[in-house]
Amino acid sequence: MTEPHAAEPPDASRPVRRFDAIIVGAGFSGLYQLHLLRDRLGLSVRVLEAAEGIGGTWYWNRYPGARCDSESYYYSYSFSRELEEEWDWSERYPEHGEIRRYLDHVADRFDLRRDIQLGTRVAGAAYDEAANRWTVTTEGGERFEARFLITAVGCLSSANVPAISGLERFAGAWYHTGRWPHEGVDFSGKRVGLIGTGSTGIQAAPVIAAQAAHLTVFQRTANYSVPARNGPMDDEFKAWVRENSSELRAKARAAPNGHPFDFSDRSAFDVSPQEREAIYEAAWERGGLRFRAAFRDIMLDKDANETASAFIREKIRSIVADPTTAEALTPRDHLFATKRPPIDTHYFETFNRPNVTLVDLKATPIAAIVPEGVRTADATYPLDVIVFATGFDALTGPLLALDIRGRDGLALKDVWAAGPTSYLGLQVPGFPNLFTMTGPGSPSVLTNMPVAIEQHAEWIADCLAFLRERGLDRIEAKPDAAEFWGAEVNRAASATLLPMASSSWYLGANVPGKPRVFMPYAGGMAHYRGICDRIAADGYEGFVMR
């Protein structure tokens, strides 16, 4: 697994490189922000990217079965009709390699590479109030200065490897899904242990099981999952998407979750039990995240959600042959979609294979990793390979890793010691001219990410244009605005069932010691966009400019 190297001290003999804006990260967010600032506003911009290639989270996430859970025709940029016309997706849900090829195409088409510096990991960023500039230092000892600093580091890019005693003594190989070797891993003839059954583990398990001699799945929390029903994109569907592109993009922008499909206006209790069952069955057969849209109150009313949860629990029992295994795979400690809702390809069916074993860690927790494998409270499982599908230090982790220090050396890690605070998920008081794309306090991970990314990139570009037109060069969120927004984030979350899943990474529950705070904004993407637009129209209410 690739780990950050120790940072070299800044090299005073090397010249400081100065730009109007520094962007950290070259994934979906960084590429589009670069395009807007450089090609629309004419600013000098440098993108610093730790990886040796572009792609952001998709550069690192190459594990078996890795693919997007938004459908390909709208998991893409909408700012260029020509780009949409010339790119063909091959599958309903794009796999990681196809997404990287798409982003490579975007970088080449818009000549973005010349302003992207790869293999450059940021070690620190400090704001100088007298100069009104950010100084960014890298692990290689380089220094950059810019008026504006924009983090485009993604929400799911800081790999979370659990601190299990004995890992360093394991005699086999171990990998984290978020830092997968580019050459791949050959599981043939191997005894593999997979730790974690969130979205990643659910994608990886069937693929690993098909290759390994034996797969042992160590499950911390049983999870709901709906079939993806992935398959090739046929020419007829591609033609329909092209003909209806404008309408589909408009629908995605107007939707609460950034997906171009309608939510039902019916309650789960507006129909008879028999009709409700038929609606769920049709949604199950169609597959994908649209299952949540079967009724309007699935995410709002506990009893309504229970009808969906019970349907999926029964599906698990009907698919998994062994009743004990089926029961262990059946989630009972949270409701459907209150954690990130996975979609899968034959996940539950995988446990019918003779070479797959499920270990329920709630019943028998991991005691230690030993040289020969994993030891739980009641057994030792011999393994050649361990795969950690344990997710990320989501939303805050990638930002705190940059060691950002604002006015008077104020450290972001100290400001966020009790949980993240921000205004709109875009700025933090005490950190002038710092913009956090898809940061905590914005819809981000609760949406189809490209929609959220485009909205933030365009809002930031418009804001910088506003400053320039008025001869201003500094913007900072007010403390009372951040306090107001924190209350709004909590209000929006409390209006849904989302905070009820105590083990959710939306709350930071997957990282020991992380404050338990609901981090994304659950008020809906379209509603959030309207708030941001109103604030901009009112002269950027809640911000101090000068």
Automatic annotation (TrEMBL):
InterPro entries membership: FAD-binding_Monooxygenases, FAD/NAD-bd_sf, Flavin_mOase-like
UniProt-recorded Gene Ontology molecular function terms: flavin adenine dinucleotide binding; N,N-dimethylaniline monooxygenase activity; NADP binding
Classification via Gene3D superfamilies: FAD/NAD(P)-binding domain (3.50.50.60)
Cofactor(s) listed in the protein's UniProt record: FAD
Keywords of this entry: FAD, Flavoprotein, Monooxygenase, NADP, Oxidoreductase
Pfam name, any one: FMO-like
Family: Belongs to the FAD-binding monooxygenase family.
Protein name (database record): Cyclohexanone monooxygenase
Organism phylogeny: Bacteria, Pseudomonadati, Pseudomonadota, Alphaproteobacteria, Hyphomicrobiales
